[in-house]
Every structure is written in C-alpha cells, then in structure tokens.
Specification:
By secondary structure, the protein is mainly β. Helices cover about 0% and strands about 45% of the residues. The protein has a domain of about 130 residues. It has a 40-stranded mixed beta sheet that branches. Strand 5 and strand 6 form a beta hairpin.
Length: about 600
C-alpha cells in the first residue's frame, strides 16, 4: 500500500511538467517524494497508484482530495485547481465546480468503495503522515496494542491515521488499549459493522465513514485536536454513531456528507458545532451537553433528544443546545435546514436563536424555552408544544414573511418586544399566552400580524410600524388595553371585542385592510387619532369614545359611529375625506354637544351623515 507522502518544510514546490507513470495494477508502493503545488494559477497533475495513501500540509495554500473506491479507475491522472479543497464524493459523479475539482473519468466515483485516499499539498510546512490499516488477525486479542492486528505487524504511533478496511480477519469489535488521549490524525472506516471501544483518543482531523451504506460505532471518548474535527459520511445510507463523550475544548466540530450521524455522548468545551451535512445529525443520549459555543445548522436536519432519568425511571428532556443556535442561510426559499425536537427542553433557556429563510425550528408538540429570537424570513413551528420567550424577538427583512405558528408564551419580562425592521413582516398564527405583568410591545417600522385567539392578559403597545389583527381576540383578554403611541393598528375583517384602545401619540392611525371591520370596545383619545379607510371600506366603532382630544378622518372610505353610549371626547373632529356616519342607537348622541365637528373639502368630498 501507499503509506507515505513526504516533503520538506520550506521546500520550493513547482508544477510537474507531465504526469508520472500510472503504475497499472499496483497494490503497493509509494508516491513520489515531491508534492507539486501550483504556480500562477496553473493546475497540477499527480500520479495515483492504486491503493491507499495520504498526506497533510499546513500553509496558506492547501489542495486536498478524498477518493473512495479506486476499482475501475481508467484515467491516468487527476487535475485539481489552485487553493481549493474537496472533501467527499461529488453528487454528480465526478465533477465539483464549487471546489474546483476535475476528474477525467467520472465512472471512478461510482465504483465500489474499497479504500480511502487523502492527498494534501501545501506550499509551506508540508509534513508526512502515515496510514495504519487494521487487519485484526491476532487469534488472541482485539486490542489495538497487539502488533499482529495491524498490517505489516507495525503498531500505529501518535499522529497516524487508523484505517479499518473490508479485508482481513478484521475483528470488527476491537479495543483501544493505548494510553488515554493518544492523538491520531484521522479514523477511517472502509466497511460497516465496526465498533471501537476502550480508552479515549484525540483526533486532529477527521472521522470518515467511507462506504455506500452500513453503520459504524465509536464508543471511545474523543478530544478534538487543535485544527478541529470533521465527521464525514460518503453514502446516503451511511450511519456513523459516536457514543463516547466529545470534548471540543476551544475547537470546532463539523459534519459533512449525505449519511446520518448520531452523537450519544456529552459534548463539552467552549467550541462550536457546525452541521454542514445533508444527512441527519442526532444529538441524543443521557445527560445535558455543556459546550458553550454556537451551533450552526447550514444543511439537513438536526434532531435533539437528550434526556435525564427521574424517579421511577421516568425520562425527561435536558439540554442538547447549551449555546446560541443558528438555523439556515439565505433570506427565503425552500426550507431545507431544520432543527427538530424529540423531547422537551432541548435548547437552553438563555440561548439566542436565529432562523433564516431556509431554516425552521420545529418543536414537534414539545415545550421549550429560549432566549432571544431573530427571524430573517424564518419559520418556527411548535405544534401542540409551547415556545416560551426569555428574550425579545427581532425580525429582519427577507424574501418572505417570517412565521411563528402553534403556541407562544411571552415569558416573564415586563416588556416582550417584537422589533420588526422596515421591510420585515412577522405573521404570528400561534396562540399567544402571557401574564398580566408582561406588555407585548411592537416597535420599528415593519409589520406584525396577530391571527389567533390569544389568551395573554397584559397590554399591547404599538410604537412604530404596522400591527394587524385578524382575530377578534388577537389582542389578548380584555383585562388590559391596547396603547397606540406611534404607528398603525389595522383591523382585518374582524370585530375586536371588549378591548380598550388608548391613543397616546400624535402619529396614531386606526385603519382596516379589508371591506369591513369593527372596534367594539371603548376608545380613549389622550392624543389625536387618525382614522383611514379606503374606497368602499367602512370601519365601525361601537364603543364609547372619551378623552381630551379628537380624531381626523382621511381616505375615501367610511367611518361609522354606531354606539349605545354618549361619546364624551372633547377634541375637534376633522373630516378631511370620505364619509362619517353618526348612528347613535336608542337616540343617544354619538358626539357630545360641546365637541366641534369640522368638515373639510380637499381633493375628495367629505361628508357627515346623521341617520
């Protein structure tokens, strides 16, 4: 087999003028001592004898490729572009423009996955790494420190890659009895069915499941090396299971590839987790994860199912995501990046959660509490579960509306702020609950839609932008009021019942966005209220209107005062456009005699009608 790619630190490397002989039929050998780096953007060409080999380099220029399955390879050369890295089998069978790789024979990537080659080339600081292949031929033991269990009867040393192939006696269940924490560059599975047990290891680069299908399990505790750790699958039906604890220290753990990955041990440290794999990643097992870095889901589904055991062997959820959580990328489009709960309380109560347009947070009928929530065309679905907010909600503009559905609790803060930036829109179809001590506060210039029959007892405060109500009880119970300071309150084809509207700012607008709507509660005009209706649309106010100020009617539509009360507001009522109908039921006055009614004619006729 190829066991080494070597080069010297500081060596001047140049493109080789032509490919070396392929070595057809070779099963062992070595690559040339030089590793050729490109100059001036030229491609390099490397001979690839059949077998296994790898090298690793550090520097400002890195070229790497990973091939699995050399059987049937007919091409004599592989061409790579400058300063790009390929990590995995291209989905199109051989060409991956995104990382600048070209393979002359596309059928190579479709062949049986029998071995893994990693070639890395850097312009500086190149050093060699050795692959040690497991044979498992010892009749007495499956321990790693038995030389007979490794090809050539040579034990691995620190820094080697461990390769577990589909050949030899194998002993698929084997034990690491090297000293705890021994460092290896990579662990690679060339076949399924392996189970690695024993002492902990440090892995400085990758753990690879280089096969089309099947399951491999690592029960070892794993410490992540200085360069981070990548968990990689190659086949759609691959499953890689890590049951040992994973200590990130201050490094990153990444996943890539189409297969599924399960981590059943506790993840600790101050590092971060990046899910770049299109396959599923499951964080399960006993006990809470404790790592404090950010978890980013950029592809596929992340499933959360950590648990503890209570009295009488009852299972209850515990923290899988202790730090902040980012779901998705981009501003809109198909939802492809999902975080899905399998139990309650999987996300820490102070975790700040960001959901982009391709992302979705799905509670699947489980309860959970988070810190702040930021949405950029993002989606939150709770089902029958309740999402409780320990922080505020910010909505940034996106290609589509952001959405929260299911059940939402406002938490315990005195103000729960929904800050919707200009151009942003948040639709809340979830039922909102909350205590009387919590104010739902709408700020900034974007739009917020409340569409459910909500049960929160606290007040609503509008300080900018647009708040649309699409349910008669969207503003919560009638135990408190709605304060309109700055911005617009819009009624969407409903009658709002029993809610007190307290107008507290000079830029307050009441309108409707459908053919009809009604405010069936009292209105207190502590400042001037502008009522705006479009042509052929009529807004009806049936509650008593009081307070020291008046109203302004704009727009070509209608405003109807249809009340059983005597209105007592003292300010001037100005009709600048449209129609105002005064319909006091039981002959009660809609306006107090002392209030002034001014009718102005501008571009459109304005009129007041008394039935």
């Amino acid at each position: 087999m190829i066991d080494r790619v070597t080069g010297g630190a500081g060596r001047s490397l140049h493109p080789h003028p032509s490919p070396l002989p392929w070595g057809e039929g070779e099963t062992s050998g070595s690559l040339p001592q030089q590793c050729y780096a490109p100059a001036n953007g030229q491609p390099i060409r490397l001979p690839l004898p059949k077998g296994e080999g790898w090298g690793e380099g550090e520097g400002s220029v890195r070229i790497a490729m990973i091939f699995a399955g050399l059987n049937g390879l007919s091409s004599k050369e592989v061409t790579l572009n400058r300063a790009m890295r390929f990590e995995g089998k291209p989905a199109n069978g051989g060409t991956s423009p995104a990382n600048g790789m070209h393979i002359n024979d596309r059928s190579m990537m479709k062949s049986t996955l029998t071995s893994l080659i990693v070639l890395a080339c850097a312009a500086t600081n190149l050093h060699s790494v050795t692959v040690r292949s497991w044979s498992g031929v010892s009749p007495l033991s499956g321990n790693w420190m038995v030389a007979a269990n490794w090809e050539g009867s040579v034990l691995p040393v620190a820094g080697d890659t461990l390769f577990f192939p589909d050949t030899g006696a194998r002993r698929t269940s084997n034990t690491n009895n090297f000293p705890p924490g021994m460092s290896f560059y990579a662990i690679t599975f060339g076949d399924s069915g392996y189970r690695l047990r024993g002492n902990s290891v440090t892995v400085t680069n990758t753990i690879n499941a280089a096969l089309d299908s099947g399951t491999n399990t690592i029960d070892l505790d794993i410490a992540v090396g200085p360069s981070g750790l990548t968990l990689r699958t190659f086949g759609n039906s691959d499953t890689l299971i890590i049951n040992g604890d994973v200590n990130l220290s201050s490094r990153a753990l990444s996943t890539t590839g189409p297969g599924d990955i399960q981590i059943g041990g506790v993840i600790s440290g101050v590092g971060s987790v990046f899910k770049n794999s299109t396959g599923e990643l499951l964080l399960s097992g006993l006990g809470a994860n404790t790592f404090t870095g950010t978890t980013t889901v950029a592809a596929g589904i992340l499933r959360l199912n950590r648990y503890n055991i209570g009295p009488n062997f009852t299972f209850f959820g515990t923290t899988a995501i202790p730090g902040d959580l980012i779901i998705g990328s981009g501003n809109g489009g198909l939802i492809a990046d999902i975080v899905a709960l399998g139990r309650e309380n999987q996300i820490a109560n102070d975790s700040d959660v960001t959901v982009y347009g391709s992302g979705s947070l799905e509670l699947n009928d489980h309860d959970d509490t988070i810190g702040s929530l930021t949405l950029i065309a993002g989606t939150v679905l709770s089902g029958d579960g309740v999402l409780t907010l320990n922080g505020n909600v910010q909505v940034n503009p996106g290609a589509e509306n952001s959405l929260i559905s299911g059940h939402l609790n406002l938490g315990s803060s005195p103000q729960r702020i929904f800050n919707v930036l200009a151009g942003g829109q948040l639709d809340i179809t979830a039922e909102i609950s909350g205590a009387a001590s919590v104010t739902l506060q709408k700020t900034n210039r974007g739009g917020l839609l409340l569409a459910a029959s909500n049960t929160f007892d606290g007040p609503v405060e509008i300080i900018g932008g647009l708040l649309t109500v699409a349910n008669g009880a969207a503003l919560g119970t009638t135990n408190s009021n709605t304060r309109l300071r700055v911005g617009t309150l819009s009624i969407h084809d409903v009658g709002v019942f029993g809610e007190l509207l307290d107008v507290q700012g000079p830029s307050a607008i009441l309108t409707l966005d459908d053919l009809s709507g009604a405010w069936n509660g009292p209105v207190v005009l502590n400042d001037e209220l502008t009522v705006s209706t479009l042509t052929n649309r009529t807004l009806t106010i049936t509650g008593q209107i009081s307070g020291p100020r008046g109203f302004i009617k704009v727009g070509a539509g209608g405003l109807q005062f249809k009340t059983t009360y005597t209105n007592t507001f003292a300010g001037v009522s100005r009709i600048l456009a449209g129609t105002v109908t005064l319909d006091g039921v039981f002959i009660n006055r809609s306006f107090q005699a002392s209030s002034a009614l001014a009718i102005a004619w501008a571009r459109q006729a304005a009129s007041a009608c008394i039935p």
